[in-house]
């Protein structure tokens, strides 16, 4: 029984000297983050495929049970929309190979314009994926959430491929108007997709966006505590990513989510112990 939790990134200015030691060389930052959380979203790979040596450094900083969910490059999902992507996908898969089992799933985040009529394209893409990698697909077109036939057809394609449907739960965030600059920025950038809570595989992945107020974030995730407990009791192994607009408390909130689940399932494996942040000295 294992629940993995994490954040959208492994380094953040607001964490420096408070949650993570500062300064830290680049080759140590992920190791210190991995003392707080045992999973991370791979957003950086969306913008550029990293050098293989860089990815090897990520592997050295984490143990084999750590979970990366690297996002497919933008050129694959948004520019070429999963068509004629043999070369960029070959380069991407080669780059992330050093992660080994840490590459938990490849995150296929599709643009909002990727509609139910494009599902056959997704099906062809998933059929070509090597069996050594599983995929987790995030869709944002509203019809996937409001049209039962569209949802059913997508579910059938994903199920045949052994792929997961990743929900990005923003319902708690959009429940009331923003109250900070970070929330106002997120208000215009984040998707307003309806809530979806079903898992298709034994390794579901959830992305949850709360508020900058930790109490409101915790209030909004209570349904996910219930769902996660249920999944674990069914023998599933979920990964839950905790976001807030400013992400200043994201690692502590991720651990709090894990603690709430573990309070109901004491047999759940604990998270690692954070590396102590050494106090600043004058000399």
UniProtKB/TrEMBL annotation:
Transmembrane segments: none annotated. It comes from the Bacteria. SUPFAM superfamilies: TM1631-like. This is DUF72 domain-containing protein.
């Amino acid at each position: 029984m294992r629940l993995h939790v994490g954040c959208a990134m492994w380094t953040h200015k607001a964490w420096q000297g408070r949650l993570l030691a500062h300064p830290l060389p680049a080759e140590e930052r992920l190791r210190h983050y991995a003392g707080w959380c045992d999973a991370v979203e791979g957003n950086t790979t969306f913008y550029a495929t990293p050098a293989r040596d860089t990815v090897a450094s990520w592997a050295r900083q984490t143990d084999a049970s750590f979970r990366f969910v690297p996002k497919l490059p933008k050129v694959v999902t948004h520019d070429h929309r999963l068509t004629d992507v043999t070369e960029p996908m070959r380069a991407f898969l080669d780059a992330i190979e050093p992660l080994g089992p840490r590459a938990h799933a490849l995150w296929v985040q599709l643009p909002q314009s990727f509609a139910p009529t494009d599902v056959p394209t997704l099906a062809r893409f998933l059929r070509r994926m090597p069996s050594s990698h599983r995929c987790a697909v995030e869709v944002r077109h509203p019809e996937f959430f409001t049209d039962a036939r569209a949802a059913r057809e997508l579910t059938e394609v994903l199920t045949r491929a052994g792929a997961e449907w990743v929900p990005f739960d923003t319902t708690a965030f959009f429940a009331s108007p923003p109250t900070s600059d970070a929330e106002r920025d997120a208000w215009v950038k984040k998707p307003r997709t309806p809530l979806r809570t079903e898992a298709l595989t034994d390794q579901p992945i959830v992305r949850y966006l709360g508020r900058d107020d930790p109490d409101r974030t915790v209030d909004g995730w209570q349904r996910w505590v219930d769902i996660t407990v249920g999944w674990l009791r069914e023998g599933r192994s979920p990964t839950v990513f905790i976001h807030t607009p400013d992400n200043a408390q994201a690692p502590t909130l991720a651990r709090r989510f894990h603690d709430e689940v573990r309070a109901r399932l004491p047999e759940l494996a604990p998270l690692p112990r954070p590396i102590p942040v050494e106090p600043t000295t004058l000399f």
